[in-house]
């Protein structure tokens, strides 16, 4: 199975952290009323948690598909090994 390299993982984490910090600083530096900042902060929090949930759902679906493929492959391998084309009934 293909795996992500540690460098790719580190880059993804760093990218997420930089984006989150930049948007958070941007929200708090806006020249608007506190209730607008609060609304934007809640929107940012909701977006981040939704992104994590979506990523988890996609990962779970891929893992489920991988398990089904392995089970199907094991069944096919068993059928192939048990099949004798020269056997007469």
How would you concisely characterize the structure shown here?
By secondary structure, the protein is mostly helical. The chain has helices spanning 6-29, 34-82. The protein is elongated.
Which helices and strands, and how do they pair?
Elements: H1 6-29, H2 34-82
Helix pairs in contact: 1-2
What this model shows, in words?
By secondary structure, the chain is mainly α. It has one domain. The chain contains two helices and no strands. Helix 1 runs antiparallel to helix 2. It starts with 5 loop residues before the first helix and ends in a 7-residue tail after the last helix. The model has no long low-confidence stretch (mean pLDDT 88). This is YiaAB two helix domain-containing protein. It comes from Kibdelosporangium philippinense. InterPro entries: YiaA-like (IPR038972), YiaAB (IPR008024). Pfam families: YiaAB (PF05360).
Task: From the structure above, extract its key features.
89 residues, mainly alpha, 82% helix
Give the overall form: elongated
Head-to-tail CA distance between termini: 41 Å
Helix/strand-derived category reads mainly alpha
Assembly state of the chains shown: single chain
Question: Helix share of residues?
Answer: over 70%
Specify the biggest β-sheet.
none
Average pLDDT, all residues: 88
Helix-strand pattern, N to C? Answer: HH
Strand content: under 5%
What's the alpha carbon Rg, rounded to whole Å?
25 Å
The low-pLDDT segments are none
Protein name: YiaAB two helix domain-containing protein
Organism: Kibdelosporangium philippinense
Domain YiaAB two helix: 8-60
InterPro entries: YiaA-like (IPR038972), YiaAB (IPR008024)
